[in-house]
Amino acid sequence: MSDDTTWGKAHASGPLLLGVRHHGPGSARAVRAALEAARPGVVLIEGPPEADALIPLAADPDMRPPVALLGHAVDEPGRSAFWPLAEFSPEWVAIRWALEQGVPARFIDLPATHTLAWDTEPEAPSDEDDEDGADDEDAPDTEGEPGAVRDLRVDPLAVLAETAGYDDPERWWEDVVEHRGPGRRDPFAPFAALEEAMTALRERYGVGGRPRDLVREAHMRLQVRAARKEFGDAVAVVCGAWHVPALREKAAVTADRALLKGLPKVKADLTWVPWTHRRLARSSGYGAGIDSPGWYGHLFRAPDRPVERWLTKVAGLLREEDRIVSSAHVIEAVRLAETLAAMRGRPLPGLSETTDAVRAVMCDGSDVPLALVHDRLVVGDVLGEVPEAAPAVPLQRDLAREQRRLRIKPEALERELELDLRKETDAGRSRLLHRLRLLGVGWGEPAVSRGSTGTFRETWRLRWEPELSVRVAEAGVWGTTVLAAATARAEADAVGAGALAEVTALAEQCLLAGLPDALPLVMRVLADRAALDTDVGHLAQALPALVRSLRYGDVRGTDTGALAGVAAGLAERVFVGLPPACAALDTDAAEEMRGHVDAVHGAVGLLAETLIGTSDTGQRDLRGRWRSVLRTLALRDTVPGVLRGRAVRLLLDDGELGPEEAARLMGLVLSPGTPPADAAAWIEGFVGGGGGMLLVHDERLLGLVDTWLTGVPAEAFTDVLPLLRRTFSAYEPGVRRTLGELVRRGPGKNTGPTTPAAGLPGFAAEPDTGRADAVLPVVRLLLGLDEVREHEATHDNSLTGVGA
Amino acid sequence: MTVSVEPTSVEASGSKDPQALRPHAEHAFAAELTALAAQDDRPRPARWKLSPWAVATYLLGGTLPDGTVITPKYVGPRRIVEVAVTTLATDRALLLLGVPGTAKTWVSEHLAAAVSGDSTLLVQGTAGTPEEAIRYGWNYAQLLTHGPSRDALVPSPVMRAMSEGMTARVEELTRIPADVQDTLITILSEKTLPIPELGQEVQAVRGFNLIATANDRDRGVNDLSSALRRRFNTVVLPLPESADAEVDIVSRRVEQIGRSLDLPAVPDGVEEIHRVVTVFRELRDGITADGRTKLKSPSGTLSTAEAISVVTNGLALAAHFGDGVLRPGDVAAGILGAVVRDPAADRVIWQEYLETVVRERDGWKDFYRACREVSV
User: Fold this and answer.
1) Rounded to an integer, what distance in angstroms lies between the CA atom of residue B37 and that of residue A40?
2) What confidence tens digit (pLDDT) does each residue in A276-312 have?
3) Region Disordered: what ranges (chain B) (predicted)?
4) Which residues of A lie inside 8 Å of B (Cβ-Cβ)?
5) pTM of the prediction?
6) What ipTM was estimated for this complex?
7) Where are the domains of chain A?
């Protein structure tokens, strides 16, 4: 093709059609050059026409890309679509050019009124939309882009790249379009060439599996025609390259109108929202379609020598992170990148060549610092800004609607709100307040319930401060409804959380706020953190909170299957890690560990109860495995006395260890071979925390303690005394007195002989029927037994007698 | 993926000594190198036998326009070979890093053979490598009778490479004492080797370059100074990418070793080999094969080479003491030994792995039991 003829064709015979790749810096530069050269009277841009009124805001000094046009259904903020624009987006360049030159700019795509309505009914051949439509994989902005066009749909660039012998369409586009410097030649030539290629593709593939494009293109054609009536041929159109042939096509006005008839409609509203480079990157799931916004931004901004400037930037970043990177490194990296590009037959080093060079020269072949470069530079931390004049974000509307629905008004005056979670409205209020708290909108603070302590009650202290509106606006980044925003925020928090306990707390909050969609990710992060955390203490701390959430979830009827799985896994890790972690601890650490052992013991009990319903055999004998861990602890000599004592006590309480065995172990510890301090610690672990009754009832144990204490040498006694005092002073006065009396009376002179036949040690062989009878009237009252069955109750009195 | 493809048949014509147990790369693959050189019409750097593009093809394999098939010498990411070859072309020294068994030496030998046609200019790094091995030594008989002269000088491989514009190789660079390592700095940055005794110097001729290999798992042997490190472009040779590829490497090598040790043939051990490779990969990568659960990684390297030795051991056990079939019990002890290097930390990691991953996995019951038996 000769440049002269294409110029004639591109401009003289109709509107100037500039086919671009969205977010392509090369395209953006080419668009600017073409606009400068052609100086059209109006610029038409692919985008929702409802946003025309918002275009002037782009010139606002407070407006900083990346930003996105957010379209949402007025009655249903969850239904939304984004049109992200970066500094290097051709559309953004076109808007800015028009504003600078005082030329009108208009959006000409199908109105969001229709595109949003489309979201509910799936497009015929394939549709990647999520149900809520918040992810805009299919949003109008992504057309014509290699990244967004997948699977069944024809990827026009992939076809072109394959024809040119490239396996990666992105790379082909970079080589052919993006890496060409600013046009020294005819500014229209690249567009003409691209149009020719696209025309060939459209002839071969039709609409490429996207029938809706026909409707959109019909609308665009009508708009272009209208603009030409007004401005003549001085019309420039910036749209996805894919659409150019369709706009060039001569179609009858009536046919186009017919296509647009009877489209579904919703009331739509548009505004600007700040966007980030991370969301432009494909990996974040928003699918705007580029891997490396930072790199593209650099290519767009760099006046010349992009590779040298890029590598200097990388060196700067690595130096900030305390890596030794000298200018010599940069020189060598540039040389390597250029030679690599030559070897791979590319016109200029691309991102892959510079990355290889950075890895080999600056990072010693390691991918770890490279990940930093990717995160900070290739993707980048850039956050856009939107002027305050931009219309309200849908999150505010959604909040207002929720407040109306739940009849809960924002008031500046502080007041208390009692919620009964069994009621539908109150449960809704609680969820809303919890969600807002997650979003950093501190409208309500949970307060301690007065009176009732049931899990179905909640008390909140409410107070709406004016600055909370600002917080809501800020939270608009997270989503368009309170639910979606809180979910997104919880997920982001989970990924960014530092400690295991933070994630567990977050899981609890997710349950309280009713965010089932966030739970899977939070659970995943939790499982990962637990797997990598080497501190058993952290795990042991996290377990009780998790089990608590599990119970809470039950109360609120949330599905907690995933939670149970994670909790069981966590317990398993604690079991494996606990015995080695208990060796060689000093007194304080041992004391702390005892707390953990107690907490885990309680949690395992609750967890095992919750898991009874599940069919997984592996999780059923959780208690059994915990007991074997306790047994290991009890018998291992390197474990501090306080922990060994505690383990024996827990086993004894569970009936896992017979009193005989417990007495034997105690005798072993209290024998003269053990240092007195260690023995005292053992006693503290064994009978501390309400174990006094044990000594009262089992005289054998008391006898052992007594014998040991009298045998402690005088010099060791002063060491042991504080420990013993701490243990015994914690008992209730009654228990202390009884113990004292028992010791004064001496061993063997108790009320009855403790023979093995007596059953429980410390109890008489036969129940005292006289005392038991005295309780009967109360028991009858409690059980509501009538006169007829009184007879049977008397027969069954052995049990109640023991209880008394 | 990294696999050293051993030559299956040695072209007798290229080998200088047909009796050699292991011929040099340039002899074993002489036919391929000649074919490549004949077809290679791309620009070659000074004194290179092939263009960089052809060197990459030689290592990665391919089919030439005339139909000659080039066998792949290194099966792995193309990027790695490209960066390595390009580094040599930009006259920067190349440092190949990797855990044992990732074909570092193999790649360096073939690079030298393809670039300079000679892979024998080699300095083997040990704790006792003297400065003379890198610079030059003296023929003392000559020195005493005729006094100091170039004739009395015994050049090192590096010195010869410099004067002839060839590729020198240094194996196990980090095992060489730090002061000896430092002699490389002048050679690599100034590209000269001064001989103060004679008041002369040897200047490197264009085409000279150096390939060093080092093991990045044995930390602290003699870490490279940053001054020396700066002279190298570093390429890390990775462990195999996919489980199937690794199973393939392990079974192939096990078969070869088994034959040379005259072990009785054991019929079907693929399942156990797969299991060993899976365990090694999961622990090494810190994540289960299904990508669902994260794991702690033990301190050992758990390289492919170790998997090979575990399986070989297991085979020996099965053949001599078992029923001739490779069973979970035969490999369990070997795995335990490879995983638990640090008795305290690694044991916990191993048990956690057993309890959280192995126990629940379908069809792994026998293996779980066997591991429990040896672990407790």
Assistant:
1) 58
2) 787 776 544 334 467 788 888 888 888 888 899 999 9
3) 1-22
4) 324, 326, 328-329, 332, 335-336, 339-340, 343-344, 352, 356-357, 359-361, 363-367, 527-528, 531-532, 534, 569, 572-573, 575-577, 580, 618
5) 0.66
6) 0.75
7) 3-284, 302-380, 394-483, 540-758, 769-803
